[in-house]
Amino acid sequence: QLQLVESGGGLVQPGGSLRLSCVATGFFLDYYAIGWFRQAPGKEREGVACISSVDDNTYYVDSVKGRFSISKNGGHNTVFLQMNALTPEDTAVYYCTVAQTLAEIKGGTGDHWGQGTQVTVSA
What we know:
mainly beta, seven-stranded mixed sheet, 1 helix, globular
């Protein structure tokens, strides 16, 4: 009954932009901390960005600061990841996740995960 569905991935050239979306069904997204993770082939899953359910503060991994932005539209039960100035190092499958607390998001132990959307950055 609880589901997260990501969309918006694709193939872009270096320096390009993408906006990922994650739609939640079966629960109220505003009650959860939310995060975006990514995983490239042969590498560990990496936390990219997250937003607190308590104060709406946002947090980013150093490599994407100033380029990526996490936001949400509570009325549509949707979270976004705006990605600008993309580089080949950003190539990965991107996942959204939710949890009761921000600490769980940062620890990679979200309550629910989407199936992911592929982002490929190449000339």
